[in-house]
Give the backbone structure.
Amino acid sequence: MSRLYVLDVPENEGVVKVASADREVTVDKVGPYFRLSADGDIVIDRRATGCRHAVWYSAIAGLEDSKIVQHDKDALRVVMR
């Protein structure tokens, strides 16, 4: 399972919204973080989030049994380790 953590702050709202819209991704809260989980890859389109680059590149708080294979101006892709 792919897992990504994002701090629950207003700046990251777009990331969580886009992830929540994906039927394959489950979003829940763990302390002050949103945990995004999926059986497959988690893919988030940056433009769909409305995040500016500075927020986009700082949105990731942590990973669990996962790795980032893409994190650029276009998208974030997290896969299982």
Q: What stands out?
A: Helices lie at 13-21, 46-49, 53-58.
